[in-house]
TrEMBL record:
The keyword Ubl conjugation does not apply. GO terms for biological process: phosphorelay signal transduction system; regulation of DNA-templated transcription. Residues 9-127 form the Response regulatory domain. This is DNA-binding response regulator, NarL/FixJ family, contains REC and HTH domains. It comes from Nonomuraea solani.
Length: 228
């Protein structure tokens, strides 16, 4: 990183003051980050994000007045004029709405007990325009809702299968399992650059914004399940 790099502008949206202060301390200590604002409820999060135009919005799910899912939808959903980059930070054992947050437009999620270095890396990842899924919990977290979310008919699945080559489908399944590009490359015996090419093609063909949406779609149409 060079000295001319513009700091990543971060907006912290968290109703618990102690947690919010912790985030502020962590992010403010980074030479490439600038905390431009804080919000203690969802409505304030939306207002501050629109006013401050941060590079990354760190969003809690459970907040008063307006929850983090709806706030994310307003900031990053299909109707957003200038979609914000949202990183959801959640408590895995409590929040059962991460799927909805990802569907609403969040760029990824992390757990609240993630170490500081992981939180910092998460903000940098989202700021770059990449998506972020916590591989260790992706299958469990989204998979636990798979049966509920999967449509009863299969036209959507058939459409996806028709759009992708067998190899692209294989890569999509690995993405949905929470594997990184490096892990997919090792498993399929191809290069990381080749994986990146496949991922790009998959997103383009399916009209998806990022790999988070690819994971959601894979579960929705039943390409993968939450078991196994």
């Amino acid at each position: 990183m060079t000295g001319n790099t513009t700091p990543i502008k971060v907006l912290i949206c968290e109703d618990q003051e102690l947690v919010r202060t912790g985030y502020l301390t962590i992010f403010s200590a980074q030479p490439d980050m600038d905390v431009v604002g804080e919000a203690a409820d969802g409505r304030a999060a939306v207002e501050e994000a629109r006013r401050l135009r941060p590079d990354v919005v760190v969003m809690d799910i459970r907040m008063p007045i307006l929850d983090g899912i709806e706030a994310t939808r307003q900031l990053a959903g299909p109707g957003a004029e200038a979609p914000a980059k949202v990183l959801v930070v959640t408590t895995f054992n409590v929040d059962e709405y991460v799927y909805e947050a990802l569907k609403a437009g969040a760029g990824g999620f992390l757990l609240k007990d993630a170490p500081p270095a992981e939180l910092v890396n998460g903000v940098r990842t989202i700021a770059r325009g990449d998506s972020l899924l916590a591989p260790a919990v992706t299958r469990t977290l989204i998979g636990r809702f798979a049966d509920r979310l999967r449509p009863s008919d299969r036209p959507a699945r058939e459409k996806v299968v028709r759009a992708l080559t067998p190899r692209e489908l294989e890569v999509l399944e690995q993405i949905a399992a929470g594997l990184s590009n490096v892990e997919i490359a090792a498993k399929l015996f191809i290069t990381t650059e080749t994986v990146k090419t496949y991922v790009s093609r998959i997103l383009t063909k399916l009209h998806l914004r990022d790999r988070v949406q690819a994971v959601v779609l894979a579960y929705q149409v039943g390409l993968v399940s939450g078991t196994g």
